[in-house]
Structure formats: C-alpha cells, structure tokens
Design goal:
By secondary structure, the protein is of the alpha/beta class. Helix content is about 35%, strand content about 15%. It has helices spanning about 10-15, 30-35, 45-55, 60-65, 85-100, 115-130, 140-145, 170, and strands at about 20, 105, 135, 150-155, 160-165. The strands form 2 sheets. Strands 1-2-3 form a 3-stranded parallel beta sheet. Strands 4-5 form a two-stranded antiparallel ribbon. A hairpin with a 2-residue loop joins strand 4 and strand 5 (about 160-165). Helix 3 (about 45-55) crosses helix 5. The radius of gyration is 18 Å and the shape is globular. The protein starts with 10 loop residues before the first helix and ends in a 5-residue tail after the last helix. The mean pLDDT is about 85.
Length: about 180
C-alpha cells in the first residue's frame, strides 16, 4: 500500500483505507443519519451526512420526510422509512462517501437497479474516481466499460485479461463473464 507491505500497517489503519459497498444490503433500524455515518447522532456531522446524501442522489427523498435525516429506517414505526432497492444502494454509497476512505470497493453496485438509477450510479462512480481509487466488481462488462480506466477479467479464479476498455473492446461487446 503506497509502496509499503500491507502487513506493516496496523489493522485499524488498513481498515481506514477501505470503504466497501456490498451487493447484499442490510439497513439496520437506525436513523438515516446513523445509517450514513455508522455512528450515534451525537457523534455525526449532520452537514457532512447531507452532502453525502446529495452526492449519492438520495437527498430529495430524505428531505421530503418530516424528520429528514432523523427518520428511523424501519417498517415497525408508522413514520419509519423503507427504501427501494435503488435507494438502498444510494444510501450505501452515501455511507461510503461519509467514511471518505481513499479506496472504495463496490460489489455489483448496479444490480437490480432500473436504467435511470444505473445512469445515476455510473455518474456517481465516475465522479468518485477523481478523489478515490475505485475497485468495481461486475458480471456485466458493458455496464463498466464507460467508467473504468482499467479492467481485469477473471474467470474461475484466474486472470483472463487485463487492459484498458479500448484495448479490450473485442471482449466488451455485450459479453458477460
């Protein structure tokens, strides 16, 4: 990492380097603010949560709720908030942005999204590359060719190819791997 052997970093320091958005989504029954920061509300920067929700494209839905970012995320409360699949993915992206780790790992961030949401997530990912190293896992190469600088194709645990999208164009024409 940065020219140093990864084992030389303390585990806590290594953990600060990475923010991961997994394909499987679990939203605990905390407030929106706590779900973004993964801290108690008193330990959370409210303005930063708002900025992250804006960047992730979820602010308007949250701001429309009476309690805003203080809305609990649960079905069990009548005023609770339950997000669609695409909105949940955006919430996880806001969480990754809040952590502000230099390396983001995104596991199938566009799975289950409608075409409009895919475009929004692509734009968000494209913008993240200016400040972060983004490692994106996808089974659909056509989804990532426009937003990746370099693509590794792995099949059955083996590296099959690795190059820029332009140089891999023959492999990227609608193929899944």
């Amino acid at each position: 990492i940065g020219g140093r052997e990864a084992g030389r970093f303390r585990k806590e320091d290594r953990m600060k380097l990475f923010s991961v958005v997994f394909q499987d989504i679990y939203i605990p029954p905390f407030t929106v603010m706590e779900n973004v920061s993964l801290c108690s509300e008193k330990d959370t920067d409210e303005g930063r949560v708002r900025d992250c929700l804006v960047k992730a494209g979820l602010w308007e839905e949250i701001a429309a709720k009476e309690a805003g970012i203080h809305t609990p995320m649960t079905r069990e409360l009548t005023q609770g908030l339950v997000l669609s699949g695409g909105q949940q993915q955006k919430l996880l992206m806001a969480r990754a942005l809040y952590k502000d780790a230099p390396i983001l790992i995104l596991d199938e961030p566009m799975v289950g999204l409608d075409p409009k949401q895919i475009i929004e997530i692509r734009e968000l990912i494209r913008g993240l590359g200016n400040k972060h190293t983004v490692i994106l896992s996808s089974h659909i190469l056509a989804e990532v060719r426009e937003i990746c600088d370099y693509i590794l194709i792995i099949s059955r645990g083996k590296l099959v190819a690795g190059d820029t999208p332009e140089n891999l164009e023959h492999l990227l024409n609608g193929q899944n791997t």
